[in-house]
């Protein structure tokens, strides 16, 4: 039976993986440390490395994994931009992922950020805790009738579109790949990227991080948007140039931003830094804006999603162990 080293293990993952593993019977070592060149020696003697989004699987790490006898990298995520696929291919190490765990979890979190920002829930909560029941500065707007721009209409983007249509919004979307299940929906339309930037009251990102989408929202893109636009990102931090976002917030071009991801999140997210503070000046600047709401990559965090991640990850490993076709293999 294969031995699995599960890196960057979190408390919230232990029960779902232990429950799912009752069916498979693998030997799983939960390792709290993130996988990097400093910690890769912990993988020695294991057949499979199970990786999370902020592990670092560059060429050096993968070379070491090969020397230690690792045969499979099993990602507990849909994204794979943290893995050097060329190096993995050269080392003969296969890579599998969890392409879909719960599109509802992420889409609903994006909607949550919109509602909280629009109706100033985070500010209202803090006020009331201090016995300040004033309504000044808490005015929002009706979502009904607003134009919502959706960048990326895969599984998560599709769910998000349908939720916003339910609010009575007009939804416009950009994606090089048309999702036929959305075509023909009332109040839905595919448009060009520039049309989306120019016409949206709210913009929500649901695109993967690939070279073509790196900093897809940059200074030029923010300049084209409506003044007061709400920008939401529950996808990948590097889709947005954070310095450009800060500039747009300072100029009031962006009226509010809801971020569940951040460009340099691997140094901050999933950690308790309440006593040590943060050294990231850009993130610190973002946190000073009252119209910015940041959550620490928790959009996926539902019971259903965690269960699906565990089950799919272990079924990927089982398929590999039996020499079956890997439906969820990632190739360069």
- Identify the CATH architecture of the largest domain: 3-Layer(aba) Sandwich
CATH topology (level 3) name of the largest domain: Rossmann fold
Q: Would you identify the regions where 5 or more consecutive residues have pLDDT less than 50? A: none
Task: Count up the domains.
Answer: 2
Helix content: 25-40%
The CATH class of the largest domain is: Alpha Beta
- The averaged pLDDT comes out at 96
Largest sheet: 7 strands, parallel
- Radius of gyration (CA) equals 21 Å
Could you name the CATH homologous superfamily of the largest domain?
NAD(P)-binding Rossmann-like Domain
Strand content: 15-25%
What structural class is derived from the secondary structure elements?
alpha/beta
């Amino acid at each position: 039976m294969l031995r699995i080293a599960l890196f960057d293990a979190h408390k919230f993952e232990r029960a779902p993986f232990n429950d799912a593993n009752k069916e498979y019977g693998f030997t799983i070592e939960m390792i709290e440390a993130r996988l990097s060149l400093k910690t890769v020696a912990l993988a020695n003697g294991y057949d499979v490395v199970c990786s999370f989004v902020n592990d670092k699987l560059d060429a050096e790490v993968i070379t070491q994994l090969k020397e230690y006898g690792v045969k499979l990298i099993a990602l507990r995520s849909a994204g794979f931009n943290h893995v050097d696929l060329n190096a993995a291919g050269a080392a003969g190490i296969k890579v599998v992922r969890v392409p879909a765990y719960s599109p509802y979890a992420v889409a609903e979190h994006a909607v949550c950020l919109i509602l909280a920002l629009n109706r100033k829930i985070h500010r209202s909560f803090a006020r009331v805790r201090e016995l300040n029941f004033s309504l000044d500065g808490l005015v929002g707007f009706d979502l009904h009738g607003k134009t919502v721009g959706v960048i990326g209409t895969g599984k998560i983007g599709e769910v998000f579109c349908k939720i916003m249509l339910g609010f009575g919004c007009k939804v416009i979307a950009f994606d090089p790949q048309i999702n036929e299940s959305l075509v023909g929906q009332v109040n839905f339309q595919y448009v060009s990227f520039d049309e989306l930037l120019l016409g949206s009251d709210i913009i929500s990102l649901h695109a993967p991080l690939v070279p073509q989408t790196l900093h897809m929202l940059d200074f030029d893109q923010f300049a084209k948007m409506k003044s007061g636009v709400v920008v939401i990102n529950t996808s990948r931090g590097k889709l947005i140039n954070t310095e450009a976002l800060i500039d747009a917030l300072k100029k009031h071009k962006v009226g509010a931003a809801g971020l569940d991801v951040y460009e340099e999140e691997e140094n901050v997210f999933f950690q308790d830094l309440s006593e040590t503070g943060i050294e990231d000046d850009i993130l610190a600047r973002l946190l000073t804006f009252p119209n910015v709401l940041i959550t620490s990559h928790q959009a996926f965090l539902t019971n259903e999603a965690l269960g699906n991640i565990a089950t799919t990850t272990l079924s990927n490993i089982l398929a590999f162990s039996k020499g079956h076709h890997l439906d969820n293999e990632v190739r360069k």
